[in-house]
Amino acid sequence: MTDLDDAVAAAKKAQAVWESCTAQSRGQILYRLAEMMESRRVELAEALRCGGLPVDAAVTEVDASIDRVVFYAGFADKVASLLGSHNPVPGPYFSASVSEPVGVVGVIAPSSPSLLGLVSTALPVLTGGNSVVLLASEKDPAIVLCECVAMSDMPSGVLNVLTDSAEELWASLAKHREIVGIDAWVADAEIRKMIESAGADGAKRVRTHVPMDSKTWFDERRGQGLHWVEHFLETKTIWHPTGL
């Protein structure tokens, strides 16, 4: 519980810093993360191999994970224009809608594919300007990935990784009052239902999912995209008078 509280406190402190970064700056930091992962390809692949993957499969997953980080790095400065709008309303005023991050989001990553599932669920939330408390599978190459994050120029506390089973921490994560959103990829239907109930009690934005099969995570059409980012954004509408 102490580790979770510390992670949430760090994420809350970092939220204002990360949100205030320009979208271009966030994208550059994510590109830097991809570069750091590329420089640690061998170690990431070895961590996956120690988790039970054959060597070829481990290398393939590392490459796909790096590509996914690059995708969101390039996408960061395009989200605002894709989701924002000039509202065509009549009257002597200008109205526009823009997207903003919701705040600190708790993510429960799927257990498989460990590395690709982790970056595929955390990166969209980060791309939108949210800070993340990430509950990773005990089999994830989390230590090597965290080292990559630490060297990527990402502000401290933006991404906080906890390694434990969902059964141990899901309740605390879902009930924590400083977490405003939950994205949980959990196979157990009862746990998903309890996460939804606990999140509703705290008026959180909660999304629960049955983990996708491995082939789907690797699919660039289904495992990434704008809809992954917009789940944890909210819309702000601005009205400004233009004269009589």
Description:
The protein has helices at residues 2-20, 23-39, 41-50, 55-75, 79-83, 114-127, 142-150, 166-175, 189-201, 214-218, 226-230; strands at residues 85-86, 93-101, 104-108, 131-136, 159-163, 181-185, 205-209, 233-241. It has 244 residues and is an alpha/beta fold. Helix 9 (189-201) links the parallel strand 6 and strand 7 (205-209). The chain is globular and about 65 Å long. It starts with a helix and ends with a strand. The model has no long low-confidence stretch (mean pLDDT 91).
The string of secondary-structure elements, in order, is HHHHHEEEHEHEHEHEHHE
N→C terminal distance: 58 Å
Q: List the strand order in the largest sheet.
A: 5-4-3-6-7
Ranges with pLDDT <50 over ≥5 residues?
Answer: none
Rg, Cα atoms, Å: 18 Å
| Count of helix runs | 11
Largest sheet: 5 strands, parallel
Mean pLDDT: 91
Structural class: alpha/beta
Helices and strands, with pairings:
Elements: H1 2-20, H2 23-39, H3 41-50, H4 55-75, H5 79-83, E1 85-86, E2 93-101, E3 104-108, H6 114-127, E4 131-136, H7 142-150, E5 159-163, H8 166-175, E6 181-185, H9 189-201, E7 205-209, H10 214-218, H11 226-230, E8 233-241
Parallel strand pairs: 3-4, 3-6, 4-5, 6-7
Antiparallel strand pairs: 1-2, 2-8
Helix pairs in contact: 2-4, 3-4, 4-6, 8-9
